[in-house]
Amino acid sequence: MEGDKKFHVVVLGAGFGGLTFCKHFHAADARITLVDRTNHHLFQPLLYQVATCGLSAPDIAQPIRSILSEREDITVLLDKVTGFDLAQKKVLLDKNSLDFDFLVLAMGGHTGYFGHPEWEQFAPGLKSLDDALRIRSHVLLAFEKAENEASTAEHDKLMTIVVVGGGPTGVELAGSFAELTRTVLSHDFRRIDPTQARIILIEGAPRILSHLPPELSASAQRQLEALGVHVRTSTSVKNIRENEVELASGEIIHAGNILWAAGVSATSLTKKLGAELDKAGRVKVNPDLSLPNHPEIFAIGDMALVLEKDGKPVPGVSPAAMQMGKHVAKIIENEIRLGAKAPARPPFKYWDKGTMATIGRSAAVAWVGRFKFSGLLAWLAWLFIHLIFLIGFRSRVAVFFNWTYSYFSYKRSARIITYLPPEPSDEKSG
Amino acid sequence: MEGDKKFHVVVLGAGFGGLTFCKHFHAADARITLVDRTNHHLFQPLLYQVATCGLSAPDIAQPIRSILSEREDITVLLDKVTGFDLAQKKVLLDKNSLDFDFLVLAMGGHTGYFGHPEWEQFAPGLKSLDDALRIRSHVLLAFEKAENEASTAEHDKLMTIVVVGGGPTGVELAGSFAELTRTVLSHDFRRIDPTQARIILIEGAPRILSHLPPELSASAQRQLEALGVHVRTSTSVKNIRENEVELASGEIIHAGNILWAAGVSATSLTKKLGAELDKAGRVKVNPDLSLPNHPEIFAIGDMALVLEKDGKPVPGVSPAAMQMGKHVAKIIENEIRLGAKAPARPPFKYWDKGTMATIGRSAAVAWVGRFKFSGLLAWLAWLFIHLIFLIGFRSRVAVFFNWTYSYFSYKRSARIITYLPPEPSDEKSG
To answer: Which is nearest to A48 in space by CA: A160, A145, A135?
Structure first.
């Protein structure tokens, strides 16, 4: 299966960019090796639903091998990238090293803390299934602890959830936690009242969802406030300690649950490429998405800084990553097939299909071309589009079923503490 | 909600026994406190399906609070039992202590290693959701490692799964792993052939499923062998080391995956009760299930040793635990309601409704009264009964959907590595 082909294309990362590349790339003379450090493709736009008990992990993750099972020309490796030897056209992995003719960098990003990596332990971000399961267990456990606790000061702390960052992920997390506490948990405790939980969304800019037009930001804020979320804009975080957020004003918020949704950086491996990076660690690529001086290497998705005609960077969203994957697939395919006769490489053009963010039950905002929606219509559009883009028949049906069930029952299917944070003793009891 | 009632009933454990007690116990003068160290009731008979990628954790677990949400007389506490002060009628918990008038001990058991607790690290058992998620990730990861590995000796080791113990759990695990490797994974690798994986089931007794009639044991063994499982009866394990099982004969099996399904002990907290215990740590109870000299304390389910008329112990299965829960609920209810006028306590009688074990797709054995079934009919009966007894409408529909999907697609819905065993470095890449 391996071996005889003339060209070896190595793809690093099986997110939206890497997987779309694989799906669009077909050349009889080439084989692909796809490397990822997890065994699954993750539908990141629904990750916040795993964190907030709405969906289970397998609902939004598909085994990469299973997705590409029919593609005999693709070898999938679960491995970790450790470095590059670009002069030798080599990728260094934890357990292997791979020689490539073409390299597609699609490793995405991780949560960025603006130069404060020490905040991560107190305010986890949401990028992987493990992150989501940890957040879910942590928040559910905080309510359990409050029920066991006599002191009301301690109740208030445990029942406070601070979300830092008013972008789409922050808005979705805050809205979904507000619903969880207001409806799902409302009748299940005897000593505490979960509807009294404080959900605080903190945003440094003057408005949330600042990539959307101001009227949609205002609408999103109204919808969040209707759910009981305290939205605090123009509010900067100065420091984060255990169970404490210190604001620039000096105010201290005591919170048993602090979640970070304020920044994404490209994987730190971009530093090993010897290429120019922007502040967020993204690689500055040529208009065709190749690395300067390396026409055989491309960077796509959240790793790449691509400037549009107006000088703005293409946003770090999944449709952009998918469009880049398709763009690079066509370029490499042409060059392998046609050699010197291949057409000149076209520049990448981002086609913005619209942006949306969901806030809660029947609450969302959407901006598509000249049209702006809020409320029920935006929410239905959001549901529909997310179901369509979920990979795999089973996931689509399972997610549709879970959503329908939650909508009518006011329950959530994944209210299960599995990933218990390590505790001193672990003997089975009770 | 708490406080005014005359009687306080403390129930330790929200498994089949404890939960059935709660559902059947109703007394206006009493309140219940139910303590469990997890937040969910677990449908243990399907735990092996979470370990073998067939179901996701939330499919077989329901939040205890949600099940008992309507019962204003029940307070649920997530806490760990640390000891007892029976003279003072007090249960000691990690974060609280509880005074009781009646105490129901329903804490179940944990995996027992016949005096070799050091084997646990190399051969995990299957009692909790965390166990199941860990086993799932470990086995999936072993196949991933084999695909990355050049040495064929290493392949053989990584692709060997040894299951120790030929009871229902061992048979179900071995059959389900055989199906996983023979069908689900068969086309997804390029360097290794998962259908060549060795699944070895080891049983010390002369036949597997020794609680069933010999012809059903023989049928189960034939069905397992048809799936490719090596069944080794009359084979004892002498020692277990990392990736090595040493048999009594001196033979050593090299296996990257060793699972322990050979023994269950009662929780070690029974030692703190000052009552007589059997070898497996179970409390020897009176015929009414109360503790000798403690008419106000009952032990039910896997914690209790109850002898039937023929001198055999009631088996440690969920129907027995549920029947015991109901029995004790009636006794305590009568005594609270009628006081001195309560009828004499009846002895507990176990009603054996039959036994079954599933082996794989269309393969199972069942023994109900005078009837013995094997194959498709037993399998359909197994599916039907397990769906009926699953708690919660959502779980029933979700599990039915997952099974139907797997049956027709030969895929499994939960082939996701989430619970990664701790590794030295955890930086995001690939």
So the answer is: A135
**Burial call A28-39: b when 16+ CB within 10 Å, e when fewer:** eebbbbbbbbbb
* pLDDT tens column, B89-113: 999 999 889 999 999 999 999 898 9
Q: What is the mean pLDDT of residues B209-233?
A: 95
Please report the pLDDT score of residue B3 as a whole number. 58
Q: Looking at this predicted complex, what is its ipTM?
A: 0.87
Question: Best mutation site among B404, B418, B423 for testing chain A: the one with the most A CBs within 10 Å?
Answer: B418
* Partners of residue B2 in chain A, C-beta under 8 Å: 190-191
C-beta atoms of A414 and B269 within 8 A: no
8 Å CB contact between B103 and B332: no
Structure tokens, A249? 């004003």
Q: Please give the torsion angle defined by the CA atoms of residues B248, B251, B257 and B258, in that order, rounded to the nearest 10 degrees.
A: 0
Which residue in B37, B257, B242 sits closest to B136, CA to CA?
B257
By C-alpha distance, the chain B residue nearest A397 is: B401
- Name the DSSP letter for residue A72: T
As a whole number of angstroms, the longest Cα–Cα distance in chain A is 77
**Dihedral sign from CA coordinates of A16, A19, A25, A29:** positive
SS3 labels along B53-89: CCCCHHHHEEEHHHHCCCCCCEEEEECCEEEEEHHHC
Give me Rg for the CA atoms of chain B.
23
- Please name the residue that has the structure tokens 């003379």: A29
Is 50 exceeded by the pLDDT of residue B169? yes
pLDDT of residue A381: 86
Dist CA A45 CA A320 (whole Å): 13
The predicted structure's pLDDT at residue A402: 79
